[in-house]
Amino acid sequence: MPFHSARANMAALLRSARLLRISPSGLRHITGTNRTGSTPCLFYSGTPSRTRNGVLSRFIGPALRNGPSSAVWTSPVGCGRSYAVAADEREDASSALLSQQFDLSLTRLDTSVRKTGRITKTLLLSIFHDICKTGYPSGNLALLLLRSCGSLLPEVPLDQRTALAHQVWEKLQGLGVKFDVSHYNALLKVYLQNEFQFSPSDFLDKMGEANVQPNRVTYQRLIAAYCQTGDMEGASTILGFMKTKDLPITEAVFNSLVTGHSRAGDIEGAKNILSVMRTAGLEPSPDTYVSLLSAYAEHGDLDSLKTTMAEAESADCEFTHRDMAQVIHSMVRAGHQQHVPHLVEHFKSSHGSLPDTMNLCLSLVTQGHHDTSFHILKTFCTQADDTLRRDSILLSSLFLKHCVNVDLPLTTIQGYCQELGDTGMHTSALTFALSCALEAKKTDVSMEMMKLMKEQDLPIRPHYFCPLLVQTLKDKNVAGMVEVLKKMQDLGLSPDADMLYTFILPLFPNRNAARKALMDTGVLGDCKAILAVDVPSMAMNNLAELYDLLSDPSSPPVNHNTFRAGLIQGFRGSDDVESMVKLTELIYRDDRFTRPNSDPAETTSYFLYNFFERMTEEEVHQNKDKLRKYLKMLRAQNINIPTNIYRGIKTLLEKYHVPELTKDVMALVDQQEAAAALTDPKVLEQKLVQLKAANKPFGRTLYRTIVVLCEEENLQQALQLKQQHEDQMTAEIYSVLIRACSRHDDHLEVALKLKKEIDQKDPSMVLEASAYLSLVRVLSKDGRVEGALDVLTEMKQKEVVLNKTHSSLFHTLNSLVTKGEAPVIQQLLDTIVTLGLAKPSSSLCAPLVTVYLNRKDLSGALDMAMQCQERYQVFPRVHDVLVGLIENGEKELLQKAIEFATERRGEMNALYDLLFAFLDAGQYKEARKIVETPGLRAKSSRLQWFAEKCIVNNKVEALEQMVDMTSKLFECDRDEMFSYLLRLYGKSNNWEKAEGVWLKMQEDTVIPRERTLRLLADILKANGQEVPFEVPETWYEERSTAEHLKAEPTRSSVEDEAQTKMKQEFSEDTAKFQAHLLSLCRKGKAKEAFEILKQRSGETLSSSCYDQLICGLLSKGKYEDAMEVKDIASSHIPDFSLTNVSNSLLIVTLSKKDLVEDALDLLRSMVQMDMEPSQLSISSLVQAQGRRGDLAAIQEVESLMGSSGINMTFVNNKAMAHTKNGDLDSAVDLLESVCTSPDSNPRLYTAFQRILDVGDDKALDKLSVLTERLANHFSCYRPITDLFVLLLDQGRVDEATFMLNRCPALAEQKDWMFSNITSKALNRGKPTTILHLLNLIPDFTDEEKEKLFTYLMKYHVLEKDLSSAKSVFEQMKAEKVTVNELTLKRLASLYTEAGETPPFTEPPMSYRFYADKLKDKSSSIVELTTEE
Amino acid sequence: MAASARKVTAMFVSKIPWTVSSKELREHFGKFGKVRMCRLPFDKETGFHKGFCWIQFNKEEELVKTLQEKHMLEGRKINVQRNIGNSFETEKGNYHD
User: Fold this and answer.
1) Cβ distance of B3 and A1054 shorter than 8 Å
2) Average pLDDT rounded to a whole number, residues A240-263
């Protein structure tokens, strides 16, 4: 078409444009150049104009409510612009769901564009498939997809983009999307961006066929399409058409014309368009200039380009990064890349310019201009400052990745990597390029890259090859996989475990097949791996075969962890117990199957635990016999497990309701404790000599010997040994010696000499921290503070590690307290803190305050403590200071202290401080007031602190008071509080009080934790008492039932179908309900739990929940309710059965209700089920039977329990039954047979008590005869002593006196008497017993008298009976019995409490001190140290 | 025991560079205590590991110590945090635990 005609046509058309200005179309035409003004927006609304935030968001708004980042869509090169158009033009009829989907998709695309200037094809396709899957893509989604098929895909070649657009188009059409004009326009835009050659008339025809009317935008784009190819004639035709339709000609049309003229070779014409525009009243926009600049760029006319740029800039036209990118793109596309550096100067690196730069770089690479792209990249990176460092790396990474993807030659890529690395733009470029190649599964390039990396000494790891195995795995292509493995082998690598398990093994139907296939190829190299591959499957299939394989000593070591899961699986499924045992023994004894440095026996024990853990309850029940056999055989093989593992397994078994297996597991516990360390220095020295003689290393023995010598304070010998073996001296030994020397102030010089010696010998030698600290201590004590500070500095320099609690530092500082030098301590502490050896803590600062406390300078102490708070934010010894203030009535100072504490530590803390101080000072009323402060809540850590303090210091009353007064405290853990009391009573073996706690807990309806029960049981056992409940054992630490429960339903076990099923059935709601029930049970509200359960009895709960509820109800004596729960449980769980604990409790309940037959039946069935009824249940039952005189029943129980040896429960109650039946002779015979059986020295006190309870005087006669006979004929004095004390206890002094007369030897049995007295420490009537004893037995030694009086006094003190205590004191003085200090101290406290002054000086030291003193004096007096 | 013990001895490690495998992780965290378990899941589609793993120590102290530190592997900072939830559990069933 002739050039001129086109031009003439153009002029005509442009006139019509001018007409537009006055046309009443409603579109106001603004001539101003202010492109950001609001009005042009309206005007340009239908054009692909420069979009600005305000504009775009307005139009995208309706479709994208609150779309967070729509603005970003403006950034990619000339594309995002039209989203606005589309949104404006199409009808918005999408439902909420669709708009949601749109939002989501847009966000995904948007994020990608914002970060990296592009969308990847993968992302687009993934969104496309997601949308298709829903079946009903909305119109706007379709639009979004189409729009994304253009320049937003810089990595995709142009033709592919168009193909993709067509694919999307057809697919969506197939899905029933109704395309409107916006979709056609969108497609046109994509065509333009992709430079797709098409026939505009065909396009219009198609629209016509689809009955879609083209609009102005359609025509504009068609013009642009003609212009793109330089077809001005075509453009004119469309323009003419637009004119006939009276469509406005907009700036975009002019811009296209600029391009059109240029492409048609008429650069002048292109330039001329600008003046035409001006004549038409339109000022050229930056877009117009960009079109013109691009025109010059395509012509390679750098000069004109620059001139035009300057011209535009002078016209206030600013070019964005994207504009420049477009110009450069055009330039390179036209083959003028040599000019690029001139333009790149105008690029300014900024975070905002990153997306455009990326898009440009990637486009250029796609189109084969990778070197130019790299140049642009480098320019961006070198310009970038530190804030853009990540952008630079991202840019380089994407560039490299794309280079790999477009299959650039490796040498090119390597060159880029090299340069990026050299210039520090990308630190691991080659490694990154490899990851790209791997990601793209480009095996050959990857291999080449790895070779290259190997040459460059970069690490190559087995798992790098995993991506290359993805496809072979999918295709089950063994040959391909072997091919990859061979390549690995070439690089000297063999597969690692991850690779094997994830990418190699699944290729094969089973491990054996894998083994065979891979063995042949020899690619696995490592035999260990092969075995690891093989073992699990073999374990699952054939244990015997596995044993054969593993037991072969030539088989390589393999960690059994790698096949443990398989082995467990195998064990679970196999009946081959023999092989199970053999295998267990093998891994138990052979360290080839354990990681180095770990103990096979221990890991095997864990294996056993895991074995039980993996089994389901049902499974364990089904395989009980097998497991029993297995465990028994393990025992026979002398396989031992540690106690903690035993406990763990036991807990599991109990959970599974198969406690009967426990016995077999217990048999495995190693009874032999590790041999005690050698402690005899003589033996050690001998060993030393032997070792030396044999020329063997003796370092450890030397060390051990010196340690023992130092422990024995035989310093001289130790030093002598050191001299003999100077060459063997280690830091360890020096540390021992220095510590030993520092223990004595007079050895300070020796210690310093040793230190000096080390410094000379090896200044770098680092001693143990304790050695340094002992030096610090002695130096400070000796007044050589400078020296001490030097040592501290040295510690810092040598980075001596102190223990976390810094207790050694504390002791060092505390040892200086006695010298009373606060400044020295302060100096040391400051140095310690400044050097950073320790962070200031209240214990570390405590010695500072202690100095003042010791001086009784309370004011000073308070000031110092406050200073510490200021300086170190700790408040040391606040408790002691407060106690002191309270005791001394220092009200003002107390006020000051509390105000300070409130301000600095908060009100809650201050209240607790005060509470404990009052408690400690014995001002319980005040303390109670504090506890009742509204809003105070239990802070368990604080309460624990005070409780522990009471326990350590034997502050019984303070603790009892605290436990009592906190009973209503909000959130107070009652069980915890009672357990503190138990611990304290346990310390003094005060079992009566302990038992009292148990009662109190029942009274307060507190359900004790297992730990609490254990505490109580231990106390009772230690005092020869029967434990009236089942003693639970737990694993490691407490796990509350709630946690347990929570863990249970979520516990997943892939292989365990049954459990998974249960899990599904176990709804969350039920779990919550159940947890609630359990928590009620724990709180002792079993009754409440029961009521709730009845309301929801239709739900199935876990059997353990029912069980616990039954347990709770029974312990409340709610027998009927418990049985109702049992019925509910049975209705849901057909084979529901109670646990050991509940059954035992049920027996107790039945026995108490005198339903003895039922109890016995239950016991029978328990025994049949191999359960172990608790001791309490047996004794309750037997007692009930005894009361009825049902001897046969007792005998049946005895035989059921199959107890070996003599069980006094049965003896006592049988004797009672006999007596009850009037058969005293049999009772006596029974007791006699017990007493005369070898090795027995039974305590018959209880038996006698029982008999006397139901019998008469005749009974006593018989017993007297019996005991006397035993004493006279068998020299068995214990029974007679028991009877004697019993009589005294019962106040039957006459009978006792007769007895004594008949059997004077009784008087010699003082040991038995004492044992009776002490074991009944607080029995009523006891003081009288003691008095009777003193009266009846004349020849107590002074020492014995002292003992008895001590008991007596203690009794009165505990009873707070001052007058009796006074008279005892008088009696003691009268009888010239030594009043020991402990007794004096006790008595003094009683006086003080009663507000009286003791008529003697109160012994100054603590109770513990005197108790220890007494203990030293007589080891038999241990029991005296109770209470304080 | 599994659940509670893992809760106190296990951690979740993320941002692991692709070049690092269980071996390196074990080596690195081995400095803080005995690594009882290291589970580094791989993506079967890509062949790369997923960039995160679970590490379990024997003792809680070891975990606490580890969590206090900053960790670098191959010059990259990696994230460590206490294992929350029971992802450990749900992804159980392969051979590394």
Assistant:
1) no
2) 89
CA of A164 vs chain B CAs: smallest distance (Å): 24
Is the pLDDT score of A291 beyond 90?
Answer: yes
User: Global pTM?
Assistant: 0.44
pLDDT at A1112: 82
Structural domains in chain B, sorted by start: 10-96 (3.30.70.330)
Cβ of B42 within 8 Å of Cβ of A466? The answer is yes
**How many other CB atoms sit within 10 Å of the CB of residue B45?**
9
The 10 Å Cβ neighbour count of residue A1148 is 25
H, E, C per residue of A802-838: CCCCCHHHHHHHHCCHHHCCHHHHHHHHHHHHHHCCC
Nearest CA in chain B to A649: B1
Average per-residue pLDDT in chain A? 77
State how far the Cα of A811 lies from the Cα of A203, in Å rounded to an integer.
93
Residue A1042 is predicted with a pLDDT of 35
With left for phi above 0 and alpha for psi between -120 and 50, is residue A685 left, alpha or beta?
alpha
Burial class (CB in 10 A: 0-12, 13-18, 19+), A274: buried
- A350-386 burial, b at 16+ Cβ within 10 Å, e below that, comes to beebbbbbbbbbbbbbbbebbebbbbbbbbbbebbee
Considering only CA atoms, which of A333, A401, A346 is closest in space to residue A376? A346
- Smallest CA–CA distance from A1046 into chain B, residue: B3
Residue A1091 has pLDDT above 60, yes or no: yes
DSSP secondary structure letters along A1357-1391? HHTT-HHHHHHHHHHHHHTT----HHHHHHHHHHH
Which 3 state secondary structure label does DSSP give B56? strand
In the block, residue with structure tokens 């402990």: A1382
Taking the CA of residue B31 and the nearest CA in chain A, the distance in Å comes to 15
Instruction: Say whether residue A681 is in contact with chain B using an 8 A CB cutoff.
Output: no
Contact A468 B42 (CB under 8 A): no
Percent of chain A with pLDDT over 70: 81
Q: List Cα–Cα distances, A36 to A251, A292, A353, A901, in angstroms.
A: 15, 21, 21, 64
Give the model confidence (pLDDT) of A729-782 as tens digits: 888 888 888 888 887 767 788 888 888 888 888 888 888 887 888 888 888 888
pLDDT of A194 > 90? The answer is yes
Tokens 């197939």 appear where? Answer: A174
Residue A233 has pLDDT above 60, yes or no: yes
For residue A645, the chain B residue with the least C-alpha distance is B1
3-state secondary structure of B79: strand
Does A396 score more than 60 pLDDT?
Answer: yes
Q: What mean pLDDT comes out for the span A860-883? A: 88
- Residue-level pLDDT at A875: 86
CB–CB contact A609 B21 (8 Å): no
In sequence order, the β-bridge partners of residue B53 are B13
Tell me whether residues A466 and B47 touch, CB distance under 8 A.
Answer: yes
Cα(A167)–Cα(A142) distance, integer angstroms: 12
Contact A1010, A1038 (CB under 8 A): yes
8 Å CB contact of A501 and B22: no
- Rounded CA-CA distance A1069/A1000 in Å is 35
Q: How far is A949 from chain B (nearest CA, A)?
A: 26
Residue ranges of chain B with pLDDT lower than 70?
Answer: 1-7, 84-97
- Dihedral angle sign, alpha carbons of residues A426, A430, A433, A434: negative
pLDDT confidence bin for A34, thresholds 50/70/90: very low
Q: Is the dihedral of CA A697, A698, A703, A704 positive or negative?
A: positive
Minimum-distance CB partner of A1054 among B1, B3, B92: B92
Q: How far is Cα B46 from Cα A330, in angstroms, rounded to an integer? A: 37
Please indicate whether, in this complex, the C-beta atoms of A496 and B1 are within 8 angstroms of each other.
no
Q: Give yes or no for A1051 touching B (CB within 8 A).
A: yes
Highest mean pLDDT among A430-439, A984-993, A1070-1079, A1395-1404: A430-439
